[in-house]
Specification:
The chain is mainly beta. The chain has a single domain, classed as Maltoporin, Chain A, CATH 2.40.170. The strands form 5 sheets. It has a 22-stranded antiparallel β-barrel. A 5-stranded mixed beta sheet has the order 4-9-10-7-8. Strand 14 (245-276) and strand 15 (279-301) form a beta hairpin. The longest helix is centred in the N-terminal third of the chain and has 14 residues, at 43-56. Residues 386-813 form the TonB-dependent receptor-like beta-barrel domain. It is a multi-pass membrane protein. It holds the Pfam family Plug. Keywords: Cell outer membrane, Membrane, Receptor, Signal, TonB box, Transmembrane, Transmembrane beta strand, Transport.
Length: 846
């Protein structure tokens, strides 16, 4: 009821003011395309603008264009980009907020992200970009480049996501757009404010400025019945010291309540000046401050470590019911504060001489993240049983312990972890372009890039506290109260009060004594690239061909730590490699509106920066060396595209395409004998391993129903379907496994229906992806899957006055839930409920 009351109170959103933007096709031939003036004033017009950009590009691209300045189709950029065929998003559990993008069957680490043409800094240990740190209303356009060109920066085997803000001289009039509203999540039952301001335009015929400010606060949560893992166990039921069951799966159950409270402040600005008719100067700046308060609380029962089996039922290889005389129950409580700051500044100057243009540019960016985590544990040992026979998703726990009473537990342990990361990036270059022959434009360029990633980690733990948990205890209530499958409970459990726990334990944990040298690294990556590309445009033909040559130099500094004598030694490594990346894109207009496409390219993605770290750990007791590998080489791939596209009517599109990627040297973990100090150790480290193959089909259809009578002519549809097949072979614990690549769903589709007239715009969008492997398997956890997931979202815009409108967005309209499992669906690994999120606002534009 509270959800529908909130919807009724905030039926709302921003009106589309009118902005005139000059749009030219993105991708390889941006500078060589024929520019056209597009007026984007509504959702239908934005679809048409994106369709035209796809048609006019030589490369294989798809894009999303904002309905209006600061009025993107979704509040979250990744939620918007998932509407593109071949794109899938990863959602974090605390509210299932979309935050990372996969393209064509490859995980987020193979997706390159640029902002106004320059690489975006990241804050994770790999090269994955978190879209949650940027507001959608800051951007005018998002383009997904699926086939590269020689002038596209290397790094995206999956593809490149290019984010663009508006150039001020593209605006014919001055603009002021103001929005204010809120975010409401039904699980947290919290209403948070949000707002944005965009202002700018031409201050003079040859000088323009535009700036934006966005403030966004939101809370999101998830609740789940979960399993830490299913452990293979040998069980002696009758106590005769002979196993009655061998290698059976025993559940390690837990229940999880997760929550995040986010505050995001972002600002951007662009200055464009044409001091003469031959010289253009463009200066960009972007800043974002992202603060995430994250909490996770859980009761966990250690059944795999239970003692004295009282009763048991085994179905095949799965223990679906077991009762122990003694099981450790643990209240596990995490609180993490992540503070991320990102800025990017760039300057470019372009000089025209005759028909040629010379451009110089420089860009500097930095992303820092400080993450501090406190973990508190309360323990209780008692008899307990689990039963999954009636419901594998909402299993039953039987125990005399009142898990909601803090007095039942004893505080056992407190931890404090601190991780600091920094990503610095500088790039600069020159580009020359102009007509070389009739119908042929030539583009030449050179670019230098210096990127440095550092990480420091500190960890300290206090054990054997053995004090009453009630000193820091609290009770979580209302857990899954509205979930019918969880009716048998429990609906409450004991957790820590984080403020009390910090005062009593956390503040006394001296982090300076917990230097974790094996998790320190400093990796610097320098690249020189040069490219040449020719674009041919004549008659029915549009084509480009080029070569990009890249030299990469890696310097890695780290620590070797010996567990036995607790000594540390500095390690330094240097490696170099070169890549030759040819590309070809062809587009041929068979008849008016019917195009055939073909593309081929060699692409690459460099290894995770954390995998390139120089640290390693020596375990003399077990003769094991655990290490990273600074000598890793990139993932390289040869890829091909074939497509047919029919552009019909005003805004109509029907297309089908086939893509294929042959990927070399996937990184896997290798265990091999290694001679060290005269002894043979087992070396465990990442290496370039087996190849993988990805292929698939994309189908797109969109059409406004303008041919229908009366109000029906305001209806329209956008639909796409992607089939992606992948195969990979890996060796885990001596066993060769063949499986699809992680993060890849074989089937995904989008279906969007909309209605739009001069005052009202309505949209309902459904996104579906089939099951997928969550990550590469390991010996402990095996093959971990996430089940098929479909989510419907609703959006409404109503114009109250010519310059004033209401907006309403409802995410996860039908409260879709997420399931995870290991090996087979009956080995449940989690069922997550995230609820709906309502976003509403009022917008004025002048």
């Amino acid at each position: 009821m509270k959800y529908w009351l909130s919807v009724g109170c905030c039926l709302a959103a921003l009106a589309s003011g009118r902005a005139h933007a000059q749009s030219s096709p993105s991708g390889a031939d941006t500078a060589d395309a024929q520019p056209t003036d597009i007026v984007v004033t509504g959702y239908r017009e934005s679809i048409e603008a994106a369709r035209d950009a796809k048609r006019d590009s030589a490369a294989v691209t798809d894009s999303i264009v904002a309905e209006d300045i600061a009025a993107f189709p979704q509040a979250n950029l990744s939620e918007a980009v998932q509407r593109i065929s071949g794109v899938q998003i990863r959602r974090d559990f605390a509210g299932a907020v979309g935050n990372e993008i996969s393209i064509r069957g490859l995980g987020p680490e193979y997706t390159q992200v640029t902002i106004n043409g320059q690489a975006a800094p990241t804050n994770g240990e790999d090269r994955t970009f978190n879209f949650n740190i940027l507001p959608a209303d800051m951007f005018r356009k998002v383009e997904v480049l699926k086939s590269p060109t020689a002038d596209t920066d290397e790094g995206g085997v999956g593809g490149t996501v290019a984010l663009e803000t508006i150039r001020p001289l593209d605006l014919k009039d001055r603009l002021l757009a103001v929005s204010a509203g809120g975010n409401y999540n039904e699980i947290t039952d919290k209403l948070d404010p949000r707002g944005s301001l965009v202002a700018g335009g031409r201050l003079a015929p040859n000088f323009g400025v535009i700036g934006s400010l966005s403030i966004d606060n939101f809370a999101a949560a998830s609740q789940s019945y979960d399993a830490v893992r299913w452990t293979r166990s040998n069980l002696d039921v009758n106590g005769d010291k002979v196993n009655d069951y061998n290698d059976v799966f025993v559940m390690y159950p837990r229940m999880i309540n997760e929550r995040q409270d986010v505050r995001r402040i972002s600002a951007s600005g662009r200055i464009e000046w044409e001091p003469t008719d031959k010289l253009t100067i463009l200066v960009d700046g972007l800043y974002t401050n992202f603060r995430q308060d994250y909490e996770r609380t859980s009761p966990i029962w250690n059944f795999p470590g239970g003692k004295t089996v009282k009763d048991i039922h085994v179905d095949g290889s799965v223990v679906d019911y077991i009762s122990f005389g003694s099981v450790v129950l643990r209240s596990e409580n995490h609180k993490t504060l992540r503070q991320t700051e990102m800025y990017q500044g760039s300057a470019a100057a372009e000089y025209k001489f005759g028909d040629w243009r010379l451009k110089g540019f420089a860009s500097k960016s930095r992303s820092t993240q400080d993450s501090e985590e406190f973990v508190y544990f309360g323990d209780k040992t008692a008899a307990a049983a689990y039963d999954t026979r009636d419901d594998i998703d909402y299993y039953e726990i039987i125990s005399p312990t009142n898990i909601a009473d803090p007095a039942e537990y004893t505080t056992s342990e407190a931890r404090r972890n601190l991780i600091n990361t920094r990503d610095d990036d500088f790039s600069g270059g020159l580009e020359l372009k102009g007509p070389a022959f009739p119908h042929v434009t030539l583009k030449l360029g050179v670019k230098y890039r210096d990127r440095q990633r550092t990480r420091e980690r500190y960890a300290v733990t206090r054990t054997k506290i053995n004090e009453p948990f009630s000193l820091i205890g609290d009770v979580l209530t209302g857990f899954l109260d509205d979930e019918p499958g969880a009716a048998s409970g429990p609906h409450a459990f004991a957790i820590s009060d984080f403020d009390k726990a910090y005062q009593l334990y956390g503040s006394k944990l001296d982090i300076s004594t917990g230097t974790d040298l094996t998790n320190f690294f400093d990796v610097e990556e320098k690249t020189w690239s040069g490219y040449g590309m020719a674009t041919y445009r004549h008659g029915p033909w549009l084509a480009n061909a080029g070569l990009r040559v890249v030299h990469t130099s890696v310097t890695s500094n780290g620590i070797e730590y010996n567990k036995g004598d607790k000594t540390s030694t500095e390690r330094n490594f240097h490696s170099e490699y070169a890549d030759f990346l040819p590309s070809l894109n062809l587009r041929y207009e068979l008849t008016k509106g019917l195009f055939l496409r073909a593309a081929a390219a060699r692409v690459m993605t460099r290894p995770s920066l954390s995998d390139l770290a120089a640290y390693r750990t020596i375990d003399d007791a077990n003769l094991i060396i655990s290490a990273k590998n600074p000598d890793l080489k990139p993932f390289r791939a040869n890829q091909f595209d074939l497509a047919a596209e029919w552009y019909f009517g005003k805004g109509g599109l029907l297309s089908a395409g086939y893509f294929y990627k042959d990927i070399e040297s996937f990184i896997v973990t290798e265990s091999v004998p290694f001679e060290y100090n005269g002894q043979t150790y087992e070396l465990r480290h990442p290496v370039n391993g087996n190849n993988a193959r990805v292929q698939g089909v994309e189908v797109n259809y969109q059409q406004p129903f303008t041919f229908l009578p009366g109000p029906l002519r305001n209806l329209g549809i956008v639909a796409n379907y992607t089939f992606t097949d992948s195969s990979f072979r890996d060796t885990v614990s001596g066993t060769t496994l063949a499986y699809g690549l992680p993060e890849n769903s074989r089937h995904s589709f989008n279906l969007i229906g909309y209605y739009e007239d001069k005052d009202l715009s309505l949209r309902i969008a459904y996104n579906y992806r089939s099951k997928f492997l969550r990550e590469k398997p390991n010996e402990q956890d095996g093959l971990k899957y996430r089940s098929a997931y479909g989510q419907a979202d609703f959006a409404a815009r109503y114009k109250l006055l010519p310059n004033l409108a209401l907006t309403l967005d409802v995410l996860n309209l039908f409260s879709a839930e997420t399931d995870e499992w290991v090996y087979e669906p009956r080995l449940t690994d989690g069922r997550f409920t995230t609820g709906r999120t309502v976003q509403f606002g009022l917008r004025a534009s002048f």
